[in-house]
Design goal:
With 102 residues, the chain is an alpha+beta fold. It has 2 domains: 47 residues, no CATH class; 32 residues, no CATH class. Helix content is 20%, strand content 12%. It has 3 helices and 3 strands; from the N terminus they run αβββαα. A 3-stranded antiparallel sheet has the order 1-2-3, with no helix packed on it. The longest helix is centred in the last third of the chain and has 10 residues. It is globular and about 40 Å long.
Length: 102
């Protein structure tokens, strides 16, 4: 069973390149997936790690899940974290475990 909507999406988010260390530096990877936010995006290949959120799969047309980015920040704020980018947050919040295990 695929975690993502279709085989094309499965392949599109994987880095299968011996020349580049991450998806943002490889021009062949066009889609990013951030599991902790359950968020998909079109990568902006400008030397950084930016992407533009997408809500439908470009190949099969399936509606993608709503981003959990705001909920992630809300949940961490409830736990007392006001700057999770700079603070040591619970390990479950570094992946999709925080929403999958609820």
């Amino acid at each position: 069973m695929n975690k993502h909507c279709c085989e094309r999406m499965e392949g599109a988010i994987k880095l299968d390149c011996q020349l580049h260390e991450d998806i943002y530096s490889c021009p062949d990877v066009l889609i990013s997936y951030t599991s902790k936010f359950d968020e998909y995006g079109l990568i902006i290949h400008d030397g950084g790690s930016a992407s533009i959120a997408i809500i439908f799969c470009p190949w099969c047309g399936t509606k993608l899940p709503e981003s959990k980015r705001d909920l992630w920040f809300d949940e961490l704020e409830k736990l007392g974290f006001d700057d999770p980018g700079e603070q040591k947050i619970p390990n479950e919040y570094t992946s999709d475990a925080w929403y999958r295990n609820t």
